[in-house]
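TICKET #2291
ISSUE: user wants both folds in one file
ATTACHMENT 1:
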Amino acid sequence: MQRQRTKPEEEPISPKSTTKTNRSKHVHVALCALAYAASGALQPTLVDWLRSNGATGVAMLPMLANTLAVACVAPLRELLLSEKRSYIDRQQWSWMNYIKSWRLKGKLLRRVAFVAFLDFLANVLVMIGLLFVGAGVYAVLFSSGVAFAALFSTVNGKRYSLRQWCGVALATLGMALNGLASVEDALDAGHGALGRFELGAGVILGGTALHSLSLVCAESVSTGEELTSFRLATYVGGVEASVLLAHNAVLLLARGADKLYLKHILKHQGDPTTVFIVYIALWFADLCHALAHYALLAGAGAVALTLSRGVQMLFVVGIAELAFCGDDARACLTPVKFASVASVAFGILLYASKPKRPKRELLPAQ
């Protein structure tokens, strides 16, 4: 007589196991936030070096490196970093089945296309606005992304406590204060914008709102089991990288490689080989940033992801104080920067903290 094997009944989850799971999740989110902040602090440093060596321009190569890195997120994670291939049965795995698993249809295809369109339009608007208002004002306006993300998440059905709203407000205020300090530095150094301040500010605010909306929509799409946030990243990055590659192909045919790339590098006395190595480093930093970005989106949501920019700001201010304060007085910690750091840190802690629930008193047995 053969025995039929039945699936064992799931054991009830104990409070200790729940606490352990929550603790590991919080540690995972914290590590992702640190990786997001550290890689995000490295990116502008590398881009500034490339700009000073004439390796940027109409080709928009830093943005192309970023989109190519985002497009590699899911394949790299699924084929190299992940031990389990949960998207398809491991025994039936093949390259053909893997390629077929990327096919999108119907409503999911439309939602992914909408997220990609929002993200690309937001990046274009923010880049255009940056030309009009300068980096300092851009930092002030882009800090409103935290509030926009919380607002759109509320419209999407999420609810936040008063404590969390206060944390969002303090973090936004702190990042805006840090941006104001950058505005003063830029004006003192004579790095003005191209003019049309109101237009540029409006364009950046619109781009910031669209960027926050794209994050909330991406969170909504990836919360379903039909699509992971990492695959969504690859779809979005692939679309944007295709547009930028087509843009570079048109410029390359019109101008040639010498005029498009090498001429500006040699004009700024740069070395093409060193520029290529720095671009590889930038791509790797973009890849780490994208992996942490979409891991945070899946594990903590759009608002926590935007709050991680505050952690990135703490990294930037700390590195500037420790490494550059002796050579440049503008990099030193001022009272305004200290207030911004304190506001951001307290806001993040306030948002992440949980209210203590009062213990229920046991009634005496009757």
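ATTACHMENT 2:
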Amino acid sequence: MESLWKRVYSKLIEKQWDNLVWDEGLIKENRRGHTREAAKYEYCHNATLTAAWYSIGTVMGKINEEEGLVILKALENQQVTDPTSPHFGCMRWYREESKVYDTNGAFFVQRSLLITRKLMSEYIFDSHKVVIDRILDRGAKWFARELATPIYYYTNKILSDGAMLLGIASLTENKEYYNLAKNFFRNWIEYTKSRGWGWGENLSIGYNGVIFSALKLALISLEADDLDLKMDIEKIMDEQLNFFRFYNGYEITPAIRNYNYDGQARRRSLVYNLAHVAGNGIGDNDDISAADAVCLVALFSDELYYDEKDYDKRNLKNEQTVPRVRITRIFDDKYSYSWAGKNGSIGTINRFPVIDGSYQHPTWGLGWQCM
């Protein structure tokens, strides 16, 4: 049978490829970008989306060598290449930006390139590898800088930085970077055991997708001798999957950073798929993004189920008692308390925000991000 990731890539190509608008190497979207400068325009040229579609298009034979070089060089133009800059190796998210506004663009753009380079290198032209490796080499310097003073409470960001450096180090056999990233993961695990998950992204469906992607990338990048660290990471992943099994496909209550503005009670998610919650099959969902295809499906191709037929064939189950209760630690002495019934759940937090100063700022804030 065709591999799961290839089925998903094929479906995305069939449904969306002809509708993509390529403009001088980047994909143009008819919407405003999310950063201050990009939001001034009615459109945006999105480097993160471009990197994901480059990966899919190249692997599936939709992008030839010359076209791919144009795309990769356009992506490289989004990178800060001045070694004296404090943002050296970081990426601008949009062409419309004159400087870096959202430093998370570094891993959101580069992770598609790294995953494809590591897992599907045989599909990539040699000339493309040269450019990708150049981007990742600069990126490693940015990620190493971030890990020098890690923001442990910002889970999806710092785990992604760590996974990127570990992945690049394993690809390039850079022992210095490998040890830096490995020690970071050890310290993060200790931090999580002793204090919790920082400001609460363990209660976010969307950010758990980023977190699982980072943890899996770390797992496949660790050497065989680092078995204890692998086991610790796998244990944390299992604990998070049990968390999602409790909610059984419904919105998390309470939720942090869920962006659920239209109040959806049921939440389709690849994380619920990973947790073996029925009704989250990839083949039954037309909303799988290119980024999720590369950064989740490609990484978890053996663990995810394609559709309900596949679910039944593999005898997957998520049996939950009704009603049920759960107490989840967020950070220090802050906990969430949840009650779940047959058709949903309710919950509360004993204090919010769980970290002082994180509630509301001009461009971000856990207040408006929690709906």
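RESOLUTION: both attachments delivered.
EXTRA DETAIL ON ATTACHMENT 2: DSSP finds twelve helices and six strands in the chain.
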